[in-house]
Amino acid sequence: MPDVTGSEITRTDCVQCGTEVHGINGRYACPLCGWTNHWSEGHTTLPTAADDTDRPAQG
Fold first, then answer.
1. Cα dihedral 16→18→21→25 (10° resolution)
2. Distances in Å between the alpha carbon of 7 and those of 25, 27, 58?
């Protein structure tokens, strides 16, 4: 699983309405207009389904 201890609060301006938005590791969602950046634009890799300890057993 990716190291989440290095999580960082980051900020940018919304590309649709210009509102200052904050996110975690470069992933953003604007509360005013609904804009979100693509998950791949984040600064870290996301965990995979195999990293989920609560997932149902595969059989």
1. 70
2. 6, 11, 30
Q: Which residues pair with 21 in a beta bridge?
A: 12
Q: Which of 39, 43, 36 is nearest to 15 (CA)?
A: 36
Q: What is the pLDDT of residues 16-43, one digit of tens each?
A: 999 999 999 999 999 999 999 999 999 9
d(CA 35, CA 31): 8
Which strand (E) or helix (H) includes residue 21?
strand 20-24
Sorting pLDDT into bands at 50, 70 and 90, what band is 46?
Answer: confident
pLDDT of residue 2: 52
